[in-house]
Amino acid sequence: MTGLRRWWRWEMHRELEVTPFIRFITIERFVKGTVLVLGGIAILALSGTDSFHNVVLRAQEELNLNPGQHLWQRLYEQLVVRFGSASARTRDALGAGAIIYGLLEIVEGLGLLWRRRWAEYLVLIATSAFLPVEVDELVRHPTPVKGIAFVVNIAIVVYLVWRKRLFLERPSTATADSPA
Q1: Rounded to an integer, what is the distance from CA 137 to the centroid of its chain?
Q2: How far is the C-alpha of 104 from the C-alpha of 61, rounded, in Å?
Q3: 57-113: per-residue pLDDT in tens?
Q4: Which of 81, 83, 84, 141 is at a distance of 20 to 30 A from 95, taking alpha carbons?
Q5: What's the N-to-C CA distance of the chain in angstroms?
Q6: Which 3 state secondary structure label does DSSP give 116?
Q7: Residue 16 carries which DSSP code?
Q8: Number of Cβ atoms within 10 Å of the Cβ of 141
């Protein structure tokens, strides 16, 4: 047990080397986290009313979008028909889930920004946890955006495990006793 505790103390106090790919991951986590938190707040704000459908229709008119086009028709169906007809409880759950997941993404980004090794582990676990869902979505409804997101997430996992050597390095006796 003391060996595990010594390794944990050594691993969690190490600073990570900031590479261009780590910078990319940091920016990606902040952008995704911000979008999710703001989207979740918007969902919760509109959830209690029936104005969600009206907001989407108004945005469609202001942006001059034609719902008869293939891409916009699918977007319209996904957002307005499915989500707009969901119960308020379902919309609240989705909004809260988006906020929580967005905050997780922001915590990952902050950890990477602060150069903490634990953030790499958090990114690895959070990214790999959703890979089966991404594969299922990609098989059922393939789109270029889903394909790109899947490739980026696979690249992040491979990079963290292989290049950053997560789970592969062990502390020496001298470095484990003195926290960094």
Answers
A1: 16
A2: 34
A3: 666 565 555 555 555 566 666 666 666 667 778 888 888 999 999 999 999 999 999
A4: 141
A5: 21
A6: strand
A7: P
A8: 9
